[in-house]
Amino acid sequence: MAEPEFTATGVRIARRLRSLTRAGRVRISDGRLELLTSYGTVIDSAPVSAVRASRPWLGPDGRARADLAGTRYLLTLSDRDPAPGEPGPPAARRFIEAVRRAAGAAAEPSRRWREVAVPNPLRHAGLTSLWVYRR
After folding, report:
1. How far apart are the first and last CA of the chain?
2. 46 strand-pairing partners
3. Domains of the chain, each with CATH number or no CATH
4. 40-57, pLDDT tens digit by residue?
5. HSE-up of residue 90 (Cα within 13 Å, Cβ side)
6. 71 touches 60 (CB < 8 A)
7. Which pLDDT belongs to residue 16?
8. Which terminus of the chain has fewer Cβ atoms in its 10 Å neighbourhood, N or C?
9. How wide is the angle at C-alpha 21 spanned by C-alphas 16 and 23, nearest 5°?
10. What is the per-residue pLDDT across 27-38, written as a single tens digit (0 to 9) for each?
11. 12-17 long-range CB contacts below 8 Å, 24 or more apart?
12. What are the start-end ranges of the H helices in the chain?
């Protein structure tokens, strides 16, 4: 078994309004994301290619939303990264980056912008390229 790419302990895992565990674990290894209880029982797992991870629009920084093959989970991680040598769960931002990195997508939001050619009338005004947000 390979070393996990991401591990977080002490994670609150909820589905809709129901809390499934307050001390769960999240693990990404061998191309799969697993949500586990504190006893090691698997709540849900899916290949990272079928997982969407994002941050909720409203709420504290320590939360992440994970969509595992159509089932939505709200994960409450720590609101900050632990200092080197200090125990504690990684922040939600690192979880989202780990999911994107494991799925092969770029973890940087700047990759969502792409450069397009400018039509001729704008080139005469000195504008040579234009950046467009890609959904």
Report:
1. 36
2. 33
3. 6-104 (2.30.29.30), 108-135 (no CATH)
4. 999 999 999 889 998 888
5. 15
6. no
7. 87
8. C
9. 135
10. 999 889 999 999
11. 12/75, 12/76, 13/43, 13/73, 13/74, 13/75, 14/73, 14/74, 14/75, 14/76, 15/71, 15/72, 15/73, 15/74, 16/72
12. 92-103, 120-123
- The tokens describing 59, both together, are 């709420």
| Position 20, amino acid | L
Alpha carbon distance 15, 107 (integer Å): 25
Residues in Cβ contact with 35 at an 8 Å cutoff, skipping those fewer than 6 apart: 13, 24, 25, 26, 42, 43, 44, 45, 66, 68, 73, 75
Distance CA 80, CA 23 (A): 17
Please give the structure tokens belonging to residue 64: 């992440």
